[in-house]
Design brief:
The complex is a heterodimer of chains A (230) and B (86). Chain A is an alpha/beta fold and 230 residues long. Chain A is built from 5 helices and 11 strands. In chain A, 22% of the residues lie in helices and 25% in strands. Chain B is built from 2 helices and 3 strands. Chain B has a 3-stranded antiparallel β-sheet with strand order 2-1-3, covered by helices on one side. Chain B is elongated and about 50 Å long. Classes of the chains: A alpha/beta (230), B alpha+beta (86). The interface between A and B is medium-sized, with 20 and 11 residues.
């Protein structure tokens, strides 16, 4: 199975994603240049983390018009997997591949820490190697991660099982929707209605080895192996 | 064609949580501006473009807002001024 990792100007997690795929999961990966119109036969496209175009205007707003996004959107429309991590999640929302938007963190600060997530739906191509309700340790590192959507959208994605990951934990007095960034319903990751585009603020590619503090991210990549023909 | 200078304001949608506006409100209160009720922090964008007339210039800039300059999910925009550019 081949993973294509898009490098935008300002991407900085592309190499982390590459190493996660190649070294932790043992699959093939190739970098895709944002100016190209070629996915190089990738089965899965990863939109990596970083600060594409310096986050000018809004995170992801300009990257979504990069030449390669035409092919990425077509890939998604065919039902093929797209994994947007952090800035990749922001880009996927701006491109209309996922509903909602990511706004400035509630505390107005960049938050970089290992967080706990709960797997809300384990019956997807991205999560089938997890157990429903399983808790994961995955790092976050973002300034604009507050998931926001209108009430109808929120109700729909909750009702359709499109919320895959939710933040859990927090201080003792935290309510049930506690999150490190103020996300609605503590949403950390959602999947498209079709089920083939995942956007998440936490970084599974940075949780692939005990030396990194967690290897809970490996199963996300492995989940894809069992559902996409090599 | 004439060169126009279009100014627009892009602000967080009313009703959405605006932590930046809240932080500025709190700071103004701390400074003694007790009468401040609300603050919204957005962006001021100036687009210079060629257009047949002012109405066409505004129409083009509105299309730019809908496609790129503002996020339809979270932001509102308003055209503040359309002037001929020097």
């Amino acid at each position: 199975m081949k993973f294509g990792i898009v490098t935008f100007p300002g991407s900085n997690c592309d190499y982390d994603a590459y190493r996660a795929v190649v070294e932790a999961v043992g699959e093939e990966a190739e970098f895709l240049w944002h100016k190209d119109h070629d996915l190089r036969d990738a089965d899965v496209v990863i939109l990596p983390g970083g600060f594409s175009y310096g986050d000018y205007l809004r995170p992801g707003a300009i990257a979504r018009f990069s030449p390669i996004m035409t092919e990425v959107v077509a890939h998604a429309r065919r039902g093929a997997p797209v994994l947007g991590i952090c800035n990749g999640f922001q880009i996927a929302c701006e491109a209309g591949l996922l509903p909602g938007a990511l706004l400035r963190n509630l505390g107005l600060k960049f938050v970089c820490e290992l967080v706990r997530l709960r797997v809300e739906n384990a019956a997807t191509m991205f999560t089938n190697r997890y157990q429903p309700g399983q808790q994961l340790s995955i790092p976050i590192a973002h300034g604009d991660g507050r998931y926001t959507a209108d009430p109808e959208t929120l109700a729909r994605i909750e009702g359709e099982g499109q919320v895959l990951f939710r933040y859990v934990g927090g201080p003792a007095d935290a309510d049930e929707w506690w999150s490190p960034n103020g996300s609605m319903h503590a949403i950390a990751g959602i999947v498209s209605a079709q089920g083939n585009v995942l956007g998440m603020m936490p970084h599974p590619e940075r949780a692939v080895h005990a030396l990194l503090g967690s290897r809970d991210g490996v199963a996300l990549f492995e989940s894809l192996l069992s559902t996409v023909a090599a | 064609m004439t060169r126009y200078r279009v100014s627009l304001h892009i602000t967080p949608r009313r009703g959405l949580l605006d932590p930046q506006g809240k932080a500025v409100t709190d700071a103004l209160h701390t400074l003694g501006f007790a009468a401040v009720r609300d603050v919204h922090v957005g962006r001021h964008v100036i687009v210079e473009l060629e257009a047949a007339d002012a109405a066409a210039a505004e129409r083009d800039v509105r299309a730019m807002c809908e496609r790129l300059l503002a996020n339809p999910v979270t932001e509102d925009f308003e055209v503040a001024a359309v002037e001929t550019a020097a």
